[in-house]
Amino acid sequence: MSIDGCDDAARARSTGARVQIGDVARAHGATLRASYALSSQQSIVLAALARCRTAALGGHLQGCDRCGHEVPMYNSCRNRHCPTCQSFEQHQWIEQREQRILPVGYFHVVFTLPEALRPWIRANRAAMFAMLFHAAADTLLALAKDPKWLAAIPAITMVLHTWTRELLFHPHVHAIVSAGGLSLDGTRWIHSRREGRFLFPVKVLSVVFRAKFRDAMLDALARGALVAPRDLPDDALDRLRESFFGKRWVVYAKAPFGGAEQVYRYLGRYTHRVGISNARLRTFDDRGVTFVTKGDRAITLTPVEFLRRFLDHVLPHGFTKIRHYGLLAPCHATSTLESARTLLAPARASPATPRNSDAVSEPRTPQSPLEWLLGVTGIDALRCPRCVDGRLTIRPLIALETSAPPDTS
Fold first, then answer.
1. Residues ≥6 apart with Cβ < 8 Å to 230
2. What is the domain partition of the chain in residue ranges?
3. For the whole model, what pTM was predicted?
4. What is the pLDDT of residues 4-40, one digit of tens each?
5. Regarding beta strands 298-301 and 288-292, do their DSSP bridges make them parallel or antiparallel, or are they unpaired?
6. What angle separates helix 236-245 from helix 202-222, to the nearest 10 degrees?
């Protein structure tokens, strides 16, 4: 069977199995390549999706030591853009980050770039995404250091997303920001205003963010560091100028979280998310792919258009989509962050400190994927599904195709 053959997709549909994005990639990947010029990274991701959990990547055979029941289990592609391969990585990330949570409230802030910039972003993804991170972080840090608002250094984690629920291109970053920060002299913790219920005015966030991004982009243009998009319309520069000077940019700040332990479990839903999860796919045939958008609404796209939209969100090679700033920046993570934790440790908690916030626990022993599955779902993956009493033993399978493993960057 070829990688782009539809045998697996047809078999999945005929047996009533849940639709997987790999089904679409195997059935229509070749048509997509013939219709659109894919980047090298997009080609790598498309190949990874098609091979994921198939004999092409090899795997192992699980056999029951009691009844002899056998079932093949194929390897995953481990590509960070594959929706099938992110659950365990997400769990590991949450476990690691929970060790750094400070016992305070947190805000969720979203920074979005205007539509007029999207052609420039498509033509300069790595540079423009980096500008987005830096402008958003510099905005939060500058306002936090201002005595008018806080005069402190907060803890910030940011995650890049580029999609809407319909898989359209919509670059934005999600930021989780502590409700307060370590004073600039490092001697005390300063809680944000209104007992931790207020961070900064949204209008001020918007104006400062726009100014910082504008300055960075105009500087990059002056240095010749950006490539002009193809087929720019005649009014492109006017629209760009209007974006910088004539319109308010969108910055959205949600109310603080109810407790510190909720912070990274909430953010974990964003960190390893890709454009769409398999759970949102409803039906797939040669005419279209139907998936849930919001609420009970759904949309149907042709298979090729669905794949094109999905691959539009492939990140540049090696690009870091999760970044930390302020007290969580690498230069502070083992020094200043611990000073802040020490200051917050005494029982003299202020109203800004959630009641259910506990001190950070001791580091946990890393779990294997099977241990995680058992702990989260109660499913013992090594119990025989046929006789129940037996245990599954494992022996390797040989890959049906010899090829280098897909790039996971």
1. 123
2. 100-275+313-344
3. 0.79
4. 333 333 333 333 448 899 999 999 999 999 999 999 9
5. antiparallel
6. 140
